[in-house]
Amino acid sequence: MDETVPISVTVNGVTVDRRVEPRQTLVDFLRYGLELTGSHVGCEQGVCGACTVRVDGAIVRGCLMLAVQCDGSRVETIEGVAGSGAAGTGEVFDLQQAFAQENALQCGFCTPGMLLTAQDLLARKPGASSQDIREALSGNYCRCTGYHAIVEAVRKTAESRGRT
Amino acid sequence: MTAIEKGRSYIGESVVRPQTKRLLAGRGVFTDDVTLPRMLHVAFVRSPHAHARIVSIDAAGARALPGVVAVVTGEDMAPVCSGWVGTLAHFQGMKSAMQRPLATGKASWQGEPVAAVVAESRALAEDGVSAVRVEWEPLPAVTDPERALDPLTPVIHPELGDNLAFTLELSSGDVEAAFKGADAVVTDTFTMGRHTGVTLEARAILADFDPSERRLTVYHSFQAPNMMQDILAHHLGLPEQDVRVICKDVGGSFGIKVHIYPDEMATCALSVMLGRPVKFTADRLESFVSDIHAREHRVKAELAVKRDGTILGMRVDDLTGIGPYSVYPRTSAVEGNQTIRLTPGVYRFRDYAASLRVVFQNKTPMCQYRAVGHPIAFAVMEAMVDRAARGLGLDPVDVRRKNYVTAEMYPHTSQTGYFFERLSHEEALDKLLEISGYRALCAERDQLRKQGIHRGLGLCAFIELTTPGPAFYGVGGARISSQDGCTIKLEPSGKLTCMTGVTEQGQGTDTMIAQVVASAVGLAMEDVRVLTGDTMVSPYGGGTWASRGAGIGGEAALQTGKAIRGNILKVAAAILQCEPEDLDIRLGKIVDLLTGEVRLELGELGRIAYFRPDTLPKDFQSELTVTRHYVPRHQGFAFTNGIQLSHVEVDVETGFVRLLKHWCVEDCGRVINPRLVDEQLRGAIVQGIGAALYEHLVYDEQGQLLTGTMMDYLVPMAAEMPEIVVGHVETPTAYAEGGFKGAGEAGTAGAPGAVLNAVNDALAPFGARVTSQPITPEVVLKALGAL
User: Fold this and answer.
1) Which residues numbered 723-742 in B keep a CB inside 8 Å of some CB on A?
2) What is the pTM of this model?
3) Looking at chain A, which terminus has fewer C-beta neighbours within 10 angstroms, N or C?
4) Which CATH number is B519's domain given?
5) How many angstroms separate the CA atoms of B645 and B761, rounded?
6) DSSP secondary structure letter of residue B460
7) In total, how many domains does chain A have?
8) ∠A100-A103-A108 over CA atoms, to 5°?
9) Widest distance between CA atoms in chain A
10) B628 CA: distance to closest CA in chain A (Å)
11) Which of the listed residues B615, B630, B645 is the one where a domain comes to its end?
């Protein structure tokens, strides 16, 4: 018995038409359905932020949203916002550079979610202070860095964006 | 021609990790990201009881589900994968029971896997798990370590006779005399909460057995690929060379991913049984009940002091519950062993007696997690020092300084037999006081107290065991390599490919190794590509644990770099018809040693050596792939040291502890990459802070885990964490040419003690103190008598 449901989603600018199980989460759809493995699964409860993606411009937990809920939506993942990582190839290029410079990632598992969350903060609050950054990132768990370098990387990016 | 006056050393430079680019672009490849043709997924039926007999397992319903390929029980798997016992011969008298990939007969902790369901997707496998009917006969659970040895307490493994896994007594000097001669004795009991590593990437393994060649390839989120290769070969009965373990990107490890887990062994056995790739990725709920736990200790301590603050002697009694099995192959005795051996090591007093009991219980198995034993040892020691100082009206800085093992005492052997080549407690303390402005903070604290603001400052001096030799595991019979190899190949283009036995989980191992190799050979860093974590390719080694990457892997890389440099110069001399001693390699070019004049490009050397060796002398053979190995031979461990300071504010109405700032000065010998060391320390400190304030695996009396989700088990998040300032003293080891020691665990070693002492400093005006971790608001309010 086929219980799958058709959906049409624009992912990183490309429209994809798929049939999905109603119970499949957005992040599982992205990872296993579309092989966009840059979004990670950490807790499946909306606590850790590793699965953070953007749906219609707003950041969401990919583990708390079902793929079927994204029918007709625009979804952006790390693969979409990061480009190749080279200058000018993605909207978070400067954040990527700052993260590398500050060593704001160790294992890198939280990093895609951190970048998307930081990008969201800087869009909403361009002059974010260290405390603003800590609060905005407080739903993104990082076990490696202790957060200090991540806060520095985001703060420096905010500063440099403010100058240009 | 141009001249290059001197070569470049990257040692001591904060080089940016080149490997972060792919992680920042979402192009990391973690184990769950790997997909193979015909791949299946496994989910496990886990015991819902802490202790229960398996009466029967009915898999018919699961087998009938669409997409379910197999349901396998412990009995089914026993012929394919042999069991194991987690003991080591050098822990005399240690015992543990036979453990199997899937429990047979009974389950001994809530979460122990008892059956496996293999299906076409993880979701279908989970559907299958729900359809397996297990009939259980619950047995009484042993949970409280204090009662584990009572005659009336059930024995978890009757064949062992009792619930005692290991016991140890240590004694140095004359502790009775020390206590008789004391002006004051302070006594306390510390309760350290069980917690775990919570790697953001859960444990994951993908096993791919090819029955035609009987070869097993395993993708594993793991720290020690050669150890896994050896164990898989042994327990699955495969030739070692036919087992390949590949560790791609690893999403955090911290000692969690260095042990043998039944579900991971079962996954490999299933691939052998089914002849298809089988993937297991733990979900967070099963991580909490199946990843190793750590640090459940009750420590009684007594400290004998003179009126002037001189420590005369100490007694320590440590009791720890490790779950129902000692974990294979490193054992679960190491944490307690290190706790009682490390406790007095910062100080010079000689009269010390300690006892340790390691007991079985029906909780998730405990084993080595980052900074094994250290956080307990130094929280206890440093809390006792502060308490003695406070009681005697002495300054905590002065009491430490008075009792340190001091500069003129090295080399020094500790009360418990640890050898210290040279440590730097006094310099580290001086530097800490300077960078933190400690005295001004004390004055501010005293001022604020008058306004009802309760801040505290807590010091924690520590030593860290790094760079272990074979005495750690090898002598006890564990096939865990303490030596590591490095292979460097000169590519025809004149660039280097380097393979190392130490592994990468985000520390920057590959960057550190590239810095050492580039400096030793004379190339630019970007011309060195480092590969780690593939047993088919890397030279044999131990991997990454016990802060061994720089001390062992770094030294092996240095020696290999020197060796290939010598070989490259021989080829250059043959081409240029001169002596190798007259040449040098600088920035990837062969230059004249004296003038720096460029004589030959390395790419040209490579072209001749690989493609036109006919133009070289007939008796000359170039050797442009070199392997060297290194093992520490002159000391058991390369100990490091440091001191941390925590500054907190305690809300005495709510019991909340707010972290204001944290400082750490540590000495890991010669620093290869200061930024990477600083970030190791910061991350490790935050793990220690998590233990001190938040993280707690709470069990009820029936052995049910009550905090088994990330909603209930609190981890440190960005908003609560303080700014962390790091300083260094550099005391290189003279036993290895590079002078490198380890740095990965120092932060976790000292942070819990510093936070504990800071909270107690804040509570001192109330005559209150806390002696248990995590220091939750409830603990603080109870100490204040408000609850």
Assistant:
1) 723-724
2) 0.98
3) N
4) 3.30.365.10
5) 12
6) E
7) 2
8) 80
9) 59
10) 28
11) B630
Token code pair at residue A164: 């240009």
pLDDT tens per residue, range A6-62 = 999 999 999 999 999 999 999 999 999 999 999 999 999 999 999 999 999 999 999
Give chain B positions within 8 Å (CB) of A82.
24-26
**Which residues of chain B neighbour A35 with C-beta distances below 8 Å?**
35
Distance CA B45, CA B47 (A): 7
CA distance B30 to chain A (A): 8
- Tell whether A110 and A141 lie within a shared domain: yes
pLDDT at res. A163: 83
Contact A107 B716 (CB under 8 A): no
- % of chain B beyond a pLDDT of 70: 100
**Do B229 and B374 sit in the same domain of this protein?**
no
* Per-residue pLDDT tens over the stretch B726-761: 999 999 999 999 999 999 999 999 999 999 999 999
- CA B554, distance to chain mean position in Å, is 17
Q: Residues A66, A121: one domain? A: no
Whichever domain contains A30, its CATH number is 3.10.20.30
pLDDT tens digits, B198-247: 999 999 999 999 999 999 999 999 999 999 999 999 999 999 999 999 99
The CA distance from B140 to B703, in Å, is 9
Give me B562's structure tokens.
Answer: 């020197």
Domain containing residue B503: 483-630
CB contact under 8 A, B683 and A151: no
Angstrom distance (rounded) from CA B32 to CA B280: 8
Domain membership of residue B607 (yes or no) is yes
3-state SS string over B696-758?
Answer: CCCECCCCCECCCCCCCCCCCCHHHCCEEEEEECCCCCCCCCCCECCCCCHHHHHHHHHHHHH
pLDDT mean over B561-583 = 98
In a domain, B166, yes or no: no
| Amino acid in the structure at residue B339 | T
Chain A interface test: which of B200, B279, B721 (most A C-beta within 10 Å): B200
CATH number of the structural domain spanning residue A150: 1.10.150.120
Which of A80, A115, A144 is the last residue in one of the domains? A80
Same domain membership, residue B645 and residue B767: yes
Looking at the structure, tell me whether residues A17 and A32 fall in a common domain.
yes
Structural domain containing residue A99: 83-163
Alpha-carbon span B575 to B582, nearest angstrom = 13
Of the three residues B583, B611, B630, the one that is the final residue of a domain is B630
- Distance of residue A81 Cα from the nearest chain B Cα, in angstroms: 9
- Clarify whether residues B649 and B779 are in a common domain: yes
- pLDDT class for A1, splitting at 50, 70, 90? low
Pick the last residue of a domain from A54, A80, A106. A80
- Cβ–Cβ contact B30 with A under 8 A: yes
Q: What is the number of structural domains in chain B?
A: 3
CB pairs under 8 A between A and B: 181
Query: CA–CA separation, B693 vs B691, rounded Å?
Result: 6
Beta-strand ranges (E) seen in B516-656 are 528-532, 583-586, 589-592, 598-601, 625-630, 640-650
User: Which strands, in side-by-side order, build the sheet including B351-359?
Assistant: B164-172, B351-359, B311-321, B297-305, B184-192, B772-773
- Considering the domain architecture, whether residues B646 and B565 belong to the same structural domain is answered as no
Do A98 and A159 share a domain, yes or no?
yes
Give the type of residue at A49.
G
Collapsed DSSP state (helix, strand, coil) of residue B321: strand
CA proximity to B89, closest of B573, B510, B596, B478? B478
Q: Does B687 touch chain A (CB under 8 A)?
A: yes
Three-class secondary structure of residue B332 per DSSP: coil
